[in-house]
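Before going further, learn to read the protein records used in this course. A complete example follows; check for yourself that the lines match position by position.
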Amino acid sequence: MRIHEVTLSSGITRTSEFERKKLASFSVNVGVKCGHDCLYCSTGSVLRRLRYFKELEENPFGGGYAIVDPDTPRRAAEDARRIQERSIVQLCTLVDAWSPEAHEHDLGRRCLEAILSQPGWTVRILTKNAAVRKDFDLIERYRDRVLVGLSITGTPDKEAIVNVIEPNASAIPARMETLKEAAERGLRTYAMFCPLLPGIADSPEQIDELIQFAVSCHAEEVFVEAVNPRGPGLRRCQEALELWGYPCEAEAVGRTRHKVPWSRYVAGLVGSVQQSIRRFSDIGRLRFLLYPSRLTDEDRGRIASDDAGVIWLGRG
């Protein structure tokens, strides 16, 4: 893993997109490329024009490297004091404050301390790394102002497959154990099942298992999202799964590189998640994040006929 250290210009920034997603009004990002190296990641599509990639001669859609800013906590502290309109800030929206390169600088904990030292802020943590449990002592001191979320992208029986496409993230069982520990310690939790990939985590049985797990962790909200088809992520996933001997899963992912199969997968996923959460929880807790531009008219109509828990995103 090639680790590049840069200096970003922002600390706490307004995020209208994540406000629409009902996740947060503000964000803090500790870099622009995460070392977890998830193959489906679409962040490169959002950040590809940033100068850092060109200066560092790195492909924004490539892997094997991370770009991190160790000075982020200082700017976050300054902004936490300066900004008067305070609400939820997500740590992070584009990268991961507990990924290996970020954890080396203790960025997650230092950013938490910087933000929570000022009244009025609530922090939503989103990570794929069980290392966040090392900071539960700090979170306990501000337990009413922190929401703990571990991004869980499959059930434990699919651990080996998920490890192929999320090579540097914590294993699925470790993430689940960490969220369970947070709940047992009385911390506020929410569920993030994003993305639930086709052929890997989208069957009704797998969704039931994930929803029941969220309920057992007292999740205040359940966020779900289909895989984003932007960029080369789906192709990279397909190729890696084929290489590591998972042809069925590779084929399922490969099909959704095309509009109609992707649309059918999304419509089916919405229906299965709604059915499961109605069975085991409360549909009012569901936040299914949906960008509909690639949906067929038929599937868009199917979802619109019962869009309980769906947050429609994108233009229009």
Summary: DSSP finds 14 helices and 13 strands in the chain. The chain has one domain: 2-312.
